[in-house]
Each structure stands twice: as C-alpha cells, then as structure tokens.
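Hey, quick one: can you model this chain's 3D structure?
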Amino acid sequence: MESGAQRLNLKREVGLIGAVSFIAGTMIGSGIFISPQYVLSTIGSPGASLLVWACSGLIAMLGGLCYAELGTVISESGGEYIYMLRTAGRVVAFMFVFSFVAVMRPASATGIALSCAEYVVAPFFDGGTPPQVLVKCIAAVLILVLANVNCLSVRLATGIQVVSMVIKVLALLVIVLGGVAMVFQGNTDNFDVSFEGTNVGVSSIGIAFYQGLWSYDGWNTLNYLTEELKDPEVNLPRAVVIAISLVTGLYLLVNVSYLTVMTPKELMSSSAVAVTWGNKVLGSWGWIMSVAAALSAFGSLNGTFFSGGRVCFVAAREGQMPDILSMAHVHRLTPSPALIFTTVISLVVLIPGDFQSIVNFFSFTAWFFYAITLSGLLYLKIKKPELPRPYRVPIILPILVLIAAIFLVLAPIIDSPQIEYLYVTLFIFSGILIYIPFIHYKLCPGLLTKLTVFLQLFLEVAPVEKNL
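Sure thing. Here's the predicted structure for all 468 residues.
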C-alpha cells in the first residue's frame, strides 16, 4: 500500500467478557457431550476417567498460563505460528502453518461440525444411528453458515460466542444439578468400585488423554487474536484463569452426573451421551439436551473459525502463504480471504471424516507443535531474560507442560504403533518440500500476482498493517 493511503488495521474489539467467552466458548464444544464415553472406554474405569478429566484440565491451565506469557512477550496475533517464527525460525513455522491449515484446523472444525450435526439429527432417529450422508450434509451447511458470519463481522461473531457460551453453561448446569439430585437419592453405585478394570497401558493413558484434552482444546484461542484484544497484557492471563477454571469445574461435575445416571456400560455404548442422559432424567423433555449440545458445538465451531482464519492471515502477512490471505475486507475489516480458504479445506476434510480418528490425529499433531512452542518459551526465558514481560510464569510450568506434551506425542506410538502416525509425521515434515521451492526460492510468482490482483478486486480486500 502507498504510504499516503489510509492504513487498514484489525480493531481491538474483544474485551474481558468476550475474551473469556472465546476461550470457554471454544473449549466447551462438542467434546464434553461426546468424548466422555471414549475416555471411559479407553481408560476402563469411572475413577480413572475422572482423574483423566482433572489432569487434562490442569494441563490446559498450565499450558494457558505459559501461552499468556508468550502472548505478552510477542504481542502479535497468530498463536503458535508467530511464536515459532520468532524462536524456532521460518522453516519450523512453515511446517506448523502447513500442518495447521491442511490438518489441524480443518480436522478440529470438521470434528466439531460432525458432532454438532449428530445432535441436530439425534431427536429424529430416537436412539437409532442416523445416515452418515445426512450428518455430513448438515455439518457442511453449519461450516458454510459460520464462515459467512465470520466474514461479515467481528462483532457478530463475538456476539454469537457470548450467547452460545451462556446457553452451553446453562446446559451443563442442568446436567450438574440433575446429577446432584440423583446423588442425594443414593445413586452412587458406579463409584463403589471406582478404579476396578483400569487400563494402565501407556497407549491407553495417552489415547484417553487425547480424548479428554480434545474437550479442553481451545485453551489457547486468545493467542490467535492478540491484536484484536483490548489491554492484552492484563486481559490475556485473566481470561485464561477465569475460563479454564470454570470449564474444568463444570467438566468434572458433568462427568460425575453422567456416571450417577448411567452405568459405565450405558455410557460407553451411547453415541450422544447428553441425549441419553436427558432421556433418562428429563423424560419427554430429553430433546432439550440435544438442542443445547448442538448450540454448544455451534458456538465452539464459531470460535474455531474465528481463530483459525487468523493463523492463515498472519502467516500470509509474514510471506509464508499467498499474499491474498493476508488481506482484510476494506469495509468490514475481517480477514475474509483466509476464512474462505479455511472453509474450503474443512469441507474437503469432511468428505472422508470419522470423529474418532480425526480426534486422535488432530491431538497427535497439535501436541507435537505445542511441545515446540513451549521449548520456544524456555528459550526466551533462558536466553532473552531482558525482554519486557508484563506477565511471567515460573520456569517450572513450561517444563511440566513440555514433559506432558512429549508423553502425549510418544505414548500412542510406543505402546501400539499404528502406521497412520507415521503418515501424519511424514506429512508434517513434507512441509519442508513445499517451503524450499515456493517460499525460499519463490517459484512461479508471476501467476500468483495476477491471481492476487483478480481476487483482491473480486473480494474487495486490501493489505493490513500490524496492530501492535
């Protein structure tokens, strides 16, 4: 852009309530309504499953606090991508953004959209299994609706996040109160032999944590939109503590409620736990849980889109993705090209998608990169202590989360190696094959320039200044 031209910036429109809603609202998605049976069936006993949920919450909290320091030292949007770029270098950052755009964000969005669609159709099939084609078509419609919302307005997307957060917290409170009522009636049989049948294999523990941590995924949402956050040095750590504490408490109470109402066997065989719970406790009003769970996943999908579009946008701004993705709409100030791009890939991933495998491969890839990001925080703490830090955590916290991340990456491979994990690892490193010709040597720029100019006019977008 010419220096005399008006400069575009993303506005700082997200305050503390919006920030808490983005974290908690992205975390409380489909996971807590779907993952409990997977955690229980993998780990084998009610007591151990509650331990997994508590420890997952602790890992998310420690990870969130470490990221809060990173977000105040490196105050740019883009989450892991920008932190890796500043600590591990351009090649590693590109490997991340390549995996994020092609696997992690689409897998996350697709997993949430599929579970949201499951809840939308559940009341019409009365316990039967709905046809997969129908579920996938509804999931595709949900992805397209939210892509449009996020392209139209930051304020509208934030509003949806706050409203859906209120609905999902109320839904979880209904489940908690229902469980409390059952406990007072003496329904505690499932806790008499809490740890009987626990699977203590390394792989079982690792996969159980994948499923549990999938429900906590979103603890790092704010780091993707730091440049749109009011007073990030104050609101970032504050929102992390409030949101993750709230979510962990609710998750534990909800799991206790599920286990007081259903036997472990019923829980493991249910395809939509909250609906089964609703049918048993609320009787003819059981459909309410289906609606609440669908709205909850809808809000989580919205948060996933909001943050995912920002990573594409920041990577393009740093010259590691096509220029068009670094632009924002000239009137609405939303990074619409990046959002459209994320949407298209999510729809492609949806075609062969299956919830269970999506979660495992997403988690494996995500924790691989979380480990690199936390190593970057340790590097900054040891090598660059002079950098201004409005917020800091003791060095033991990133070390603990790093150990947990390494365990989560290695556990499923060591105990029961699956060829799929090798494919995922090869895919992550295949980013280097794209980086060398297209980013480092900038092959075929002429074609991209023409395409960029056409899309810029067609989408009414322009380059954006950093909002520091």
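One thing worth noting: Confidence is low (pLDDT under 50) at residues 1-6.
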